[in-house]
Write a structure and sequence with these properties.
heterotetramer, A: alpha/beta, Elongation Factor Tu (Ef-tu), domain 3, Rossmann fold, seven-stranded mixed sheet, 34% strand, B: 309 residues, alpha/beta, TIM Barrel, 16 strands, 29% helix, binds flavin-adenine dinucleotide, binds flavin mononucleotide, binds FE2/S2 (inorganic) cluster
């Protein structure tokens, strides 16, 4: 199911440095979305910026509210940030393949880098086990996105900051390493879910391989259509000999980490 | 309002229920859009360019946005003729619209082979020949930049098919009228234009081209004035029908091309921005005709007045 | 910040204090902008194209906005050589920047006459030859669309002047490299590109072209990707310096062209939108160099990395 | 004198159907502007819409407030309408040649069609004689721009509407005709000033010719630069033999009505 709708903006609030939580009204998308899926927003009214922009669904609420967490990085997001409650917003979604949910015996470990928390919050909201853990890395303390912006779901979390202004000083993958060392879970009971900048994902993928933990990652690509029509959003998968392209918008954005060729430029 | 106006147009032997066609490479195999619109409403749609063998296409990034436009360097990625006929076509056959197959080859013979393979195949209404791809034998310049080579490709396709042949022209030429005339003389039933303009963008932070392929094809509203002028020129040069495209986003844009003399229009990049662009344009045209009391859309086509300017 | 970085570039024999030039036809005779900026800050500016006799230009409307661009059909309106030399030049002579005169003729001989008339004239640093205008003898196609004719015009100008000759190339060609090589061989000291792309717009209510002249030249951000690609191509074809332009609005846009290998850039349409665009770009380049620790802007020029793509 | 400034919007209020009064802060422009001059506003933030839009200065107030009356007709004015007090707006001006002011003995007759009132309000504000008259024509009563939106200057006015919903039912040129008939002024004591749609201006120009009244009109043209650099904004002047082009932005926008070739398309 996918929909193209003129939705209403319910709120659009600043939750951390350059980071906003957008709430839009769409019963259809809220009803059909699964964690890891995304929407394409048409931000401009005129012909520039031309293309829609992809954003993960970071949660749903009250049956008809779709939540999007976004960071202002360029011209589309700068325009989005100026929108106010009551304005209309054209949304296409839900799109793509979401996360395969862990079964009840598994311990889900979520690893997020920065705005990469977006799809993982939705995942955490959806998983019903109480032992879900999320590790989140941010640049600095003012960039931290509080878990409770999404409502009050129960989750254990730990935070790292690059500059050490909050939590562990260093990389979020170091939090993950510590966690994997300290704990005595059997690898087969663990399941990794990650989203964030590519170097981080690459490291997570390596650790998953080392520890034989199944790992799903949500990755990004520049997109034009979001629905498999333009063939623009490829990512290299497989190793050199068996290399093929996968379409991030329809084969992904969630992939098992071993499917991705992490050495592509 | 009672929609009495007649939107039907004829592209040579091909009758369309309205003059709106989804452009190749921007509408997948049609099926992708089924959840959002009724394909049967379309005048026609053109599938992604098909080659003899499947192609993976270019490495990423393949797409970059530019002012009022986008560059793409998909590299003609496609599933190949065989898989298309086996997996996609059966799902398109029962549609009440025209499915047009866009083809491209790496040599004149490959074009012939493709045409031949589509001969007699049910469910395909016409062939659109993409002559904008690099001609390896001629040092990488596109087939479509040379009138003689364009004519050769056209002739080959016409000889090898039983279907109407639309030749799709490249805008990256000094005088598009020469190419149009050459393919007309070679037997094309219609021409469509424009394909993308070649362009480039640079990442000033990394000092690399933004596209892995270095250059790409520019499409979208940015190119509309260029497209419209070429359509205007070609309409006044050939007798066969002209299908116009380039930056058409809405009904008003489509009307510019129809008034300039395009018998039909194709909608490309707009499908990404507004997936229902094609059907929105169709209903827009219908409303416009109703409002203006136009009974037959052919009254509008080519109605541009040049004298009073 | 102490601005120590060196922005000087050389266009053949011509040394510029920085690589930013105001483009012909968009900066009047320079004087119009004096209330808003210090002309002496510019690398150079190029006056509106001058012909032997004054020209009234095309009837209105001459201008229409398009997506991220504009079409103009000024029709090369200008005050003519004589009035320029008599009324305008004396007021430009004492400026501490380079004044470049853009010329165009209706025949090869007219180009020669113009060059000759500017020979030895004080206060003019170089001649820019606009070969994009219609060649009446050749059925209205522009001089600049044929390598041989382009070469002839260039040769004529070079023979008749003592000043550096910049030939300004038209983008409305199949392979701009052929023209660039031809004018290089004919003695041009530099090439500048691109002039406008030909385009058109239709008024769907009146069903007439929006421009009285029917077609016009497309400029502005819309054409930037096309311009950048042509600059990239020409830089890799000729040895003489390349001056890049087309849709440059700000410092980041200018950097794309410099990185691609343009020795200098021209700023056209941007002057209308932001009259201080030229000087804003100059200070932007200075800041960029400072931030990046670049001592000489020539380090950036042509620094595009193609291998890692 | 001309300035290019980032000004602040002080207000932007709806004063009639699709008609707004914009107040922007600029001491420099307010100090130098004369009636009939205009400014070029950069309405879009990005590259589309690309060009600035020309608007007459319709008054100044409190030394540093520049007033602009505008009608929403297309994409630029639709965007302008959305701007709020406090936002910035890039302005270039004052531009062009304004009206030659009448001397104290003359009776100024102002004839406006629709949004053509804009430069004439400024003119009326500037002229110090008490016998200034303005005749204003609008499509319908809801389009009427009240003279007092500009502050309280004393002026005699009469109104016509095309549909007869207010004042004289018919054309504003009919008001002018009646006025010229009824009154016993000597033509040499009259001075006409007009702005509005071209057919109206053409009629006013004819009447001025018939009655031998000097007549200044403010006319429009599509503009790119507004300052004489692009040569885009021409209007045909003179008759067929002596035809030349005038630049609306620098030779005008105010011309004597006999200078203009009213038969051009
Ligand atoms: C499946 C998917 C899910 C995403 N989810 C989120 C999310 O939940 N929250 C969030 O803040 N961001 C998310 N992103 C990234 C988001 O799409 C980009 O940040 C956004 O498109 C930038 O738009 P812009 O106009 O502000 O930036 P631009 O001015 O266009 O560019 C700024 C930077 O963003 C990159 N970028 C631009 N367009 C895209 C695009 N279509 N896809 C990826 N990168 C792009 C550019 O390469 C550039 O480096 C997601 C991307 C994808 C592909
Ligand atoms: C000297 C001068 C003074 C003016 N004063 C006023 C004023 O005080 N108040 C007011 O409301 N309007 C005034 N106008 C007209 C105003 O400039 C246009 O209404 C405005 O530019 C339309 O912009 P848009 O983007 O909304 O319309 P668009 O979408 O661009 O076009 C809508 C219509 O407006 C016309 N138009 C577009 N651009 C221009 C332009 N640059 N100049 C003239 N017409 C144009 C088009 O031909 C079209 O018919 C003036 C024009 C000039 C030349
Ligand atoms: C992503 C993309 C892929 C395209 N692929 C093809 C193709 O396979 N064959 C073809 O003939 N044209 C292809 N085109 C060109 C379009 O069909 C069309 O000619 C061009 O985009 C101009 O129209 P537009 O501005 O409406 O997009 C492609 C265009 C885009 C944007
Ligand atoms: C209004 C206008 C007038 C122009 N007149 C000339 C001219 O007289 N001679 C010339 O060589 N180029 C002329 N040009 C072309 C510009 O110099 C420049 O090549 C082109 O506009 C592309 O650059 P831009 O996108 O920065 O404007 C003109 C362009 C515009 C917009
Ligand atoms: S974004 Fe178009 S195919 Fe993926
Ligand atoms: S608007 Fe540019 S010369 Fe008048």
């Amino acid at each position: 199911m996918m929909f193209e709708q003129k939705t209403e903006i319910i709120f659009n609030k600043n939750v951390a440095l350059k980071t906003f939580l957008l709430g839009i009204r769409s019963q259809e998308i809220a009803a059909h979305a699964i964690p890891g899926q995304f929407v394409m927003l048409r931000i401009g009214k005129g012909p520039d910026p031309l293309l829609r922009r992809p954003f993960s669904i970071s949660g749903t609420r009250d049956q008809d509210l779709v939540l999007i967490l976004y960071k202002v990085v360029g011209k589309g997001t700068a325009l989005l940030q100026e929108k106010r409650a009551g304005e209309g917003l054209s949304v296409l979604g839900p799109l793509g393949r979401g996360f395969g949910l862990p079964d009840d015996e598994q311990v889900p470990l979520l690893v997020a880098g920065g705005i990469g928390v977006a799809p993982l919050f939705f995942l955490a909201q959806t998983i019903h086990t109480t032992n879900t853990q999320i590790m989140m890395g941010f640049g600095s303390s003012n960039e931290i996105i509080p878990v409770d912006v999404m409502g009050d779901f129960k989750i254990q979390y730990s935070i790292s900051t690059d500059d050490g202004t909050h939590g562990h000083g260093g990389l979020v993958t170091e939090l993950l390493a510590t966690s994997l060392e300290k704990h005595t879970w059997h690898p087969s009971s663990l399941s990794l879910f990650s989203c964030g900048p590519k170097p981080m994902l690459k490291r997570v993928a390596e650790m998953a391989l080392e520890h034989h933990i199944p790992c799903q990652v949500s990755i990004e690509a520049v997109m034009a259509c979001g629905m498999g029509a333009c063939q623009g959003c490829v990512v290299r998968s497989g190793s050199h000999e068996t290399q093929t392209y996968q379409y991030v918008c329809k084969d992904g954005p969630v992939f098992f980490s071993h499917q991705i060729d992490w050495n592509q430029p | 309002m009672n929609h009495i106006s007649d939107l039907r147009v004829k592209i040579g032997p091909l009758g369309l229920k309205n003059p709106v066609i989804a452009a190749s490479g921007t509408f997948g195999y049609g099926l992708e859009f089924e959840p959002l619109l009724d394909l049967n409403l379309l005048g026609a749609f053109i599938v992604k360019g098909i080659s003899l063998s499947p192609r993976q296409g270019n490495p990423p990034p393949r797409i970059v946005e530019t002012p009022c436009g986008m560059l793409n360097a998909i590299g003609l990625a496609n599933i190949g003729l065989e898989v298309f006929l086996r997996d996609k076509l059966p799902r398109l056959k029962n549609l009440d619209t025209h499915v047009i197959v866009n083809i491209y080859g790496h040599s004149v013979d490959e074009y012939g082979e493709l045409a031949n393979a589509l001969k007699g195949v049910d469910g395909i209404s016409a062939v659109e020949v993409n002559i904008s791809c690099p001609n390896v034998a001629e040092g990488g310049m596109a087939f479509g930049t040379d009138p003689q080579v364009s004519a050769k490709v056209t002739e080959k396709v016409v000889q090898n098919t039983d279907k109407p042949v639309i030749v799709k022209l490249s805008p990256n030429v000094t005088d598009i009228r020469l190419i149009a005339r050459a393919v007309e003389d070679a037997g094309a039933h219609a021409v469509s234009l424009i394909n993308t303009l070649t362009g480039m963008a640079v990442d000033i932070d990394k000092r690399i081209p933004k596209l892995a392929n270095i250059s790409g094809g520019l499409s979208g509203p940015a190119i509309r004035p260029v497209a419209l002028y070429m359509v205007h020129q070609v309409v006044r040069t050939v007798k066969i029908p002209v299908i116009g495209m380039g930056g058409i986003m809405d009904c008003r844009d489509a009307l510019e091309f129809l008034i300039a003399g395009a018998r039909a229009v194709q909608v490309g990049t707009a499908n990404f921005v507004n997936p229902t662009a094609t059907v929105d344009i169709i209903s827009g045209l219908r409303e416009y005709c109703d409002e203006q009391g136009i009974e037959d859309i052919n009254e509008i086509i080519g109605s541009l007045l040049l004298e009073c300017r």
